[in-house]
Specification:
Blueprint: H1 2-11, H2 16-45, H3 54-58, H4 68-98, H5 106-135, H6 139-162
């Protein structure tokens, strides 16, 4: 009986409250994918964190200092990679659990999904860029700010332009 109720909630795509809660949960999964990809790259592949970054301090990472120009370049590279991973997760989960597809043909829907996400990515990553470039913000603060703005932008675009609300 409980499993039937859970299944019904997971498959419900009409009730706006349930839809938004599932969007937040699926967004949390995409957020986790974004964070994992971004920080694995920033720590192990393309250095994007300074020794005083909150993540470096939280995990006791001993990082070499890097210039702001290298950090900014690597921030954009890391955000691009995490964007691709997170949006793949987001698309699959949104189609399965949140929105009704079929408003557009599948390839068109995927294209629109990534186009809206790309617009959100550019706006939010430029926000992070400005925080780093002009205010000297930590990479982590810039990253979290970018994710917050992208979430708001994406929900609006997906609900009203891509899927059947």
């Amino acid at each position: 009986m409980l499993m039937q109720g859970v299944k019904q909630i997971l498959l419900e795509k009409n009730h706006p409250g349930i839809q938004f809660l599932k969007y937040i949960f699926c967004g949390g999964c995409a957020f986790a994918a974004d964070i994992v990809v971004f920080y694995l790259l920033a720590i192990f592949v393309i250095p994007a964190l300074t020794p005083d970054d909150i993540v470096a301090r939280l995990f006791g990472l001993e990082l070499d200092p890097i210039s702001d120009s290298l950090r900014l370049r690597n921030f954009w590279i890391g955000k691009t990679c995490s964007f691709l991973g997170a949006n793949t997760v987001a698309y699959v989960l949104n189609v399965l659990f949140v929105f009704k597809g079929g408003k557009h043909k599948v390839l068109h829907e995927v294209g629109l999904f990534f186009a809206v996400s790309f617009a959100a990515f550019l706006c939010s990553t430029w926000t992070g860029d400005i925080l780093i470039r002009f205010f000297g913000a930590q990479t982590t603060v810039s990253n979290i700010t970018a994710i917050f703005f992208a979430t708001l932008f994406n929900y609006t675009g997906r609900k009203f332009f891509i899927f059947h609300g």
